[in-house]
UniProtKB/TrEMBL annotation:
Domain ABM: 3-74
Keywords recorded for this protein, A-Z: Monooxygenase, Oxidoreductase
InterPro entries linked: ABM_dom, Dimeric_a/b-barrel
Gene3D superfamilies: 3.30.70.100
Keyword Oxidoreductase in record: yes
Molecular function via GO: monooxygenase activity
Protein name as catalogued: Quinol monooxygenase YgiN
Transmembrane parts of this sequence: none
Length: 96
Protein backbone atom coordinates (compact mmCIF):
# COMPACT_ATOMS: atom_id res chain seq x y z
CA UNK A 1 0.00 0.00 0.00
CA UNK A 2 1.33 3.44 -0.95
CA UNK A 3 2.05 5.88 1.86
CA UNK A 4 2.78 9.58 2.23
CA UNK A 5 5.65 10.93 4.34
CA UNK A 6 5.64 14.55 5.46
CA UNK A 7 9.00 15.99 6.48
CA UNK A 8 8.54 19.31 8.24
CA UNK A 9 11.58 21.58 8.30
CA UNK A 10 12.22 24.89 10.06
CA UNK A 11 14.91 26.58 7.99
CA UNK A 12 17.29 29.32 9.01
CA UNK A 13 15.56 32.42 7.55
CA UNK A 14 18.93 34.05 6.83
CA UNK A 15 19.92 31.08 4.64
CA UNK A 16 16.79 30.48 2.53
CA UNK A 17 18.50 30.61 -0.86
CA UNK A 18 21.21 28.20 0.26
CA UNK A 19 18.58 26.03 1.95
CA UNK A 20 16.62 25.62 -1.28
CA UNK A 21 19.80 24.60 -3.10
CA UNK A 22 20.61 22.00 -0.43
CA UNK A 23 17.05 20.65 -0.45
CA UNK A 24 17.10 20.36 -4.25
CA UNK A 25 20.45 18.54 -4.18
CA UNK A 26 19.24 16.20 -1.43
CA UNK A 27 16.05 15.33 -3.27
CA UNK A 28 17.91 14.08 -6.36
CA UNK A 29 18.79 10.91 -4.42
CA UNK A 30 15.33 10.76 -2.84
CA UNK A 31 13.56 10.83 -6.19
CA UNK A 32 15.91 8.16 -7.57
CA UNK A 33 15.46 5.84 -4.58
CA UNK A 34 13.59 2.61 -5.31
CA UNK A 35 9.94 2.94 -4.30
CA UNK A 36 9.79 6.73 -4.43
CA UNK A 37 6.63 7.71 -6.32
CA UNK A 38 7.20 11.45 -6.11
CA UNK A 39 8.38 14.37 -3.99
CA UNK A 40 7.03 17.89 -3.68
CA UNK A 41 8.49 20.76 -1.66
CA UNK A 42 5.93 23.13 -0.17
CA UNK A 43 6.38 26.27 1.95
CA UNK A 44 4.12 28.14 4.33
CA UNK A 45 2.86 31.23 2.47
CA UNK A 46 3.25 33.34 5.62
CA UNK A 47 6.58 31.85 6.71
CA UNK A 48 8.85 30.71 3.84
CA UNK A 49 11.31 29.25 6.35
CA UNK A 50 8.65 26.66 7.28
CA UNK A 51 8.91 23.95 4.62
CA UNK A 52 7.09 20.64 4.31
CA UNK A 53 8.45 18.03 1.94
CA UNK A 54 5.67 15.72 0.76
CA UNK A 55 6.97 12.31 -0.30
CA UNK A 56 4.95 9.46 -1.84
CA UNK A 57 6.30 5.94 -1.36
CA UNK A 58 5.19 2.63 -2.83
CA UNK A 59 5.11 1.02 0.61
CA UNK A 60 6.02 1.39 4.27
CA UNK A 61 8.99 -0.86 3.55
CA UNK A 62 10.27 1.40 0.74
CA UNK A 63 10.04 4.41 3.05
CA UNK A 64 11.83 2.52 5.84
CA UNK A 65 14.62 1.49 3.44
CA UNK A 66 15.04 5.11 2.40
CA UNK A 67 15.20 6.33 6.03
CA UNK A 68 17.80 3.64 6.76
CA UNK A 69 19.82 4.80 3.73
CA UNK A 70 19.74 8.41 4.99
CA UNK A 71 21.20 7.23 8.32
CA UNK A 72 24.33 5.88 6.57
CA UNK A 73 27.44 7.88 5.63
CA UNK A 74 26.53 7.45 1.94
CA UNK A 75 23.00 8.76 2.52
CA UNK A 76 23.85 11.65 4.82
CA UNK A 77 22.85 15.08 3.51
CA UNK A 78 23.49 18.69 4.47
CA UNK A 79 19.90 19.25 5.70
CA UNK A 80 21.09 19.35 9.30
CA UNK A 81 23.15 22.44 8.54
CA UNK A 82 20.17 24.57 7.46
CA UNK A 83 17.49 23.74 10.03
CA UNK A 84 16.82 25.62 13.26
CA UNK A 85 14.86 22.79 14.89
CA UNK A 86 14.75 19.02 14.62
CA UNK A 87 12.85 17.88 11.51
CA UNK A 88 9.47 16.28 12.15
CA UNK A 89 8.56 13.20 10.11
CA UNK A 90 4.95 12.03 9.86
CA UNK A 91 4.11 8.91 7.86
CA UNK A 92 0.52 8.63 6.67
CA UNK A 93 -1.39 5.70 5.20
CA UNK A 94 -4.84 5.67 3.61
CA UNK A 95 -7.55 4.54 5.98
CA UNK A 96 -9.80 3.15 3.22
Amino acid sequence: MAITALLELRLDPARLEESHRIIDETLVATRAFEGCLGVEVTADVKDPAHVVIVESWASVEADAAYRAFRATPEGRSELGSIVTAAPVLTVLAPVR
